[in-house]
Design goal:
two-stranded antiparallel sheet; 2 helices; 18 strands; cytoplasm; meiosis; flagellum; Radial spoke head 1 homolog
């Protein structure tokens, strides 16, 4: 059913309301028979979208309210979350940042409601990946992530004014598995190497000050590691 404006060719054009055969409804703007402009589309499931359309697809700025209580507010391209936006999940977690083809992708911040902790850094196809910082109540971790897990060298920064440097490594049994094998049960383990005063973190590594009682050998090894990195 359609109730609204039409152009001289009889196409839906202008403001109108429509009820689709599946029970969904749309109230908004049309251009040459297509939903184009601003409108509200309500799904029979209880979900609804209010925002911009282009030729029947969500495109531009808009907010989608999902049946589970979660919602996304931000950019849309060709019916996909794409650009910049904020997603509030059903459990109260919030992601704010970049999107690409419906996935978290680029730079973004994820806040965990239960703990108040937040991840600030890179994302690839929905997973935490790249340089990042995880901020907790009284300490934070700076390092790299891959497929949602910390990997390689990094450091924990504590509010009391010191840092613990080290790296995340996988267990021996996980290294030999093929990529197709599930390895979700094998979590990376933190291997600490030294504790120092606060240092400056850069995406390409950091200049580690030698511990107060460090030997010349340890200092030389640190220089070699930086050179290799």
């Amino acid at each position: 059913e359609y109730d609204g404006e039409r152009n001289s060719e009889g196409e839906r054009h202008g403001r109108g309301k429509a009820r689709l055969p599946n029970g969904d409804t749309y109230d908004g703007e049309y251009e040459h028979g297509f939903r184009s402009g601003w409108g509200t589309y309500r799904f029979r499931s209880g979900a609804y979208y209010t925002g911009e359309y282009l030729q029947n697809k969500k495109h531009g700025q808009g907010t989608f309210f999902y049946p589970d209580g979660s919602q996304y507010e931000g950019d849309w391209v060709n019916d996909q979350r794409h650009g910049y936006g904020e997603y509030t999940y059903a459990n109260g977690d919030i992601y704010t940042g970049e999107w690409f083809n419906h996935n978290r992708h680029g730079q973004g911040t994820y806040v965990y409601k239960d703990t108040g902790s937040k991840y600030v850094g890179g994302w690839v196809n929905g997973n935490q990946e790249g340089e990042a910082e995880v901020i907790h109540l009284n300490h934070r971790f700076k390092g790299k992530f891959l497929n949602g897990n910390p990997v390689g060298r990094g450091k924990y920064v504590f509010d009391i004014g010191c840092e613990q440097h080290g790296e995340y490594i996988l267990s021996e049994q996980d290294k030999g598995e093929e990529e197709e094998e599930p390895s979700l049960l094998v979590a990376p383990k933190w291997k600490a190497s030294e504790i120092t005063k606060l240092t400056l973190w850069t995406p390409h590594g950091e200049n580690l000050p030698s511990p107060r009682e460090a030997s010349l050998v340890t200092a030389a090894e640190a220089v070699e590691e930086r050179a290799a990195a």
